[in-house]
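User: quick one
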Amino acid sequence: MSRYSRFLVLFVMLVLVVSACTKPAATTPAPTTAPAETTQAAAPGGPTAEPLKPGQVEIRWFIGLGTGTDPDQLTAEQEVVDAFNAAHPDIKLVTEIVTYEAAFDQLATEMAAGNPPDIVGPMGVDGAESFHGQWLDLTSLIQKNNYDLTQFDEGAVNFYKTGGEGQLGIPFGIYPSVMYYNKPLFDEAGLNYPPHKYGDKYKWPDGTESEWNYETVQKLAMLLTVDKNGKDASDPAFDAANIVQYGYVPQYQDARAMGSYFGAGSLVAADGKTAQIPPEWAAAWKWIYDGTWKYHFIPDQAVIDSPEMGAGDPFGGGRVAMALTHTWYYSEIALENWDMGVVPSYNGKTTANFNADTFRIMKATKNPDAAFTVLKYLLDDASLKLLNTYGAMPARTADQADYMKALDEKYAWKPDFSVAVAGIKYADNPSFEAWIPNYLEARARVANDFTSMLQSTGGLNMDDEIAKLKSDLQTIYDKKQ
Amino acid sequence: MAIGELLNRPKTREKFVPLRKLSPNARREALTGLAFISPWIIGFLVFTIIPMIASLVFSFTNLQLVQETPLQWNNFENYTTMASDPQVGASLAVVLKFGGISLPVGILLPLLLALLMNNRNLKGSPVIRTLFYMPYIVPFVAAVFIWGGMLNSETGWINEALRWFGVLNPPTWVDSTTWVYPAYVIIGIWGIGNSMLIYLASLQNVPTELYDAAKVDGAGPFETLLNVTFPMISPVIFYILVLAVVDLFQYFLVPLVVKNGTGAPNGATMFYNLYLYKTFFVFQNMSYGSALAWVLFIIILAITLVLFKTAKYWVYYAGESNR
Amino acid sequence: MPSHSKIDANRRKSNWKKALRALMVTGFSLILLALFLSPFLFMVFTSMKSPQQMSAVDAPIWPAKQETFSYQGKDLDVFIVPLPDGTTRRLAMVKPGRTSSVFIDPQNPNGGQITWQGSWRTLKKPWTWSPNWQNFVDVWNLIDFPRLMRNTLFLAIMTEIGVLVSCTLVAYGFARFRFPGRGFLFTLLISTIFLPSAVTTIPTYTFFLKIGWVGTYLPLIIPAFFANAYDVFLLRQYFLTIPHEMDEAAMMDGAGPFRIFWSIILPQSIPVLVAVGIFHFVYAWNDYYNPLIYLSTRPELQPIAVAMSRFNGIHSTNPHLIQATALMALIVPLLIFLLGQRFFMQGIVITGVEK
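Assistant: Done. Structure below.
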């Protein structure tokens, strides 16, 4: 008997201890209403271990919806945070770093639980649109702080004035498009480099000239696609099963980016609810699809993913002659002797679509003024340091010259950075990432599923697939109407 | 000791009798049992029940991460939407197709491996066992890259090996609607170390006298396996089976990472739980995602209950309370 | 003595048979192991490759360095070139071309340029075995490896204690005692793993946020002390295979339930306790999602799995660094397994009571 009672006493003590520890739980209501109201108060004291000094507010900077989580970038960001904290005793800036593939879930969880960060970035339109309606309109803060927006290009400022929600961001980094090319591969083939000025023609070895359009790119890319015997893709004896070098890759482009290089457009009609496929986009998809599966000058997904091709970074792998993508990429190319040419035209019109990154303040922030102080610091004092580590071109016009100069000194083989600046003029409007109805589901259908199909499934009838995409998009749009 | 006698013990049916109606002895036993399981009961009440109920409540609302329409009670609307959502049926079909290969492999292969590792004739077994277990320790991030490199249709080691053996057109694995399931099963096989370990532990507990008795009865190795080993470790086989079913219905991490959650090729990898995950986190539709989750819960519960019912015909518990 | 020699002969014969059987079983296992571990070899090789080799055209699958020759300030690739006179020489390529390429002889760089007709892509390159140990040094420097190991070990050990203590007690309760509602409670226990984590994440996070535990180790450690369905289910299944007679004998001797648990059930369950211990240790060691979600603002508390994912950024993946980190992180759980699995020797299970 005594053994039983001893055990029961132990058990009762355990229960008491546990219930004492978890007392707050009993008084906490089930969180059924929390997710909708992100403004709800967060845990007292915030998530940091060190208590805040009296009068100090904590500002949490969330990094991960775009670039910014590489180990060397973390070092730069930490230096910025330390410098900020040293200069601002009333604010404690802390970072929250989550790599891209987990960042969207993490932010969603924090928002739903009522524990959102204050500042999020760097991120592009895509990252921001994934949390549509959650960003603070900065108009009143800009006025209150007399923040000068004229130091930026007007177009860049208006880029963040979308959907009648006010000024959702201040320009920070911009990324025009360029055609990267691998000089040694052109030299080996005895071909001239792509033009460096918009409007210039491409010069063939025999002296004839062609318009710098996608037809020319295709012809050129086929000459630069080589099998293991050294035969190029325009040679009848070309062995498509053993390709060792490719001519062109639509690097990091989802189907929307692919389409908009042929012409800016939108997947939704002006009425905001009818699905449409811009004819230029359909032409672009067919061009890329045939380039991959029929003419073989574009690597398919399996090739792109293979470690020998750079494990997802084909141009950086050194076996692709040309890659069309945005300027942030040059900070990450593990290759030497590349340069930049201009974006080709389609039907006589050039569209060099455009990425832009900035930091945004969340609507749910409890300290908008302190958050704006941090934002100003990131955009002004820390901007060059951060832009450098992110590989972004400054949106502030006055900084661009210094930035170019710094770049010129960085690369021994002197790539022509003026090409990048010249591309700003050909930005796409509307942006290829712009909002469409039921954005998250519609984007998944076109940017993930459709892109993946283009690059990994051969033997399809593209007209059928495009018609199917359109009807699927309509179904997805209709869900939210 | 005859084996048959062991196996044919009568089983008592459990009936719910309120605590106070029990005899003093039985009540004492009941209280002691409850005391032993109390850590779990407390943990369940504190950490588990709130999230479970919350998700059930969500499934009857129109909750979204970004609430565009006013939050309201939706009755069974999410559940009726599911009935007309073609992806739900398609995803369940994907799960069943994959399970047709993955379940038998996931249950039998580790058992065979454990028997091999438990063989007295195996020399150097500590090291060999460790090496078979090792892949299970490889972190997921690293494993994804390893299998990307192994299964790549152009340059992967598996296809290079197949070509070397004279296969002209080796499978395109994760890009083929036929081969994607075997490919995922192969990835899964790499992690069977854990099930092997569980089988191995249970094989230790088969009393050696039973093997000696079987030998005296003149039983061969296969008969011994069937009549001694199998019944003695059947509770653990049952454990592996139940967990394999749960894992099958919750399978989503590999297709999420390998094919970026697109369900490619052609929807063949849009597993039910992947669709649920996408609905919840990518499309941020929390209420519909919760409804999908609760239907999944009911499906797994039903299958598990059926498995528990069948257990009395083939699972043998030497230590079952049957006084 | 004829009978003796006959026994000797029989013994020799059976020894010989035994050796053959050992050879066959062990040989078969080794072949199986070789197949099974080929992806692991891929991992080891990748961790030792230089970034240059990762993207080289005809690089071998093993870590290797390409032969180069430094000429006029440039590193030229060396090729194995068959010459028209039938000899084969190692030449450095100065200028590649589609139909003809220009080489020089590294042995005699001043001997002038050699123009070779044909496609250089058909030429082979000499590669030499050269593991790039620098990857491991880079990992050590890029992430604070010792601190990450400490954090990971702390989490793994704390939760290990919680899991072993709570799960054995609960499993014993379910396996050995009759109480009203036992079937229902057990089904409830198992069903806690039926709901996919996607939908429970947000409510769970909200709960821990409200009690102020987000940003600490508490949400990761404390729940481990309240048992989990996986391990309770496994232990209960195992306890049910232990015959009841021994409990009864002990009870006759006046042993209480806790004493029976301690001196009869546990000693007979060492293999499964070791298995659960290893199982949980590895789980805690590699757990990525939970530490990430609760410690995202506290990088100094994060375990190795979270830090490892940094090498897998949005546009820059470093497979060689990921594999190097993974290999370095593998060592501790591997040692644990190597030590733990010596309890899986058939026949030496310690039994509390003679059967």
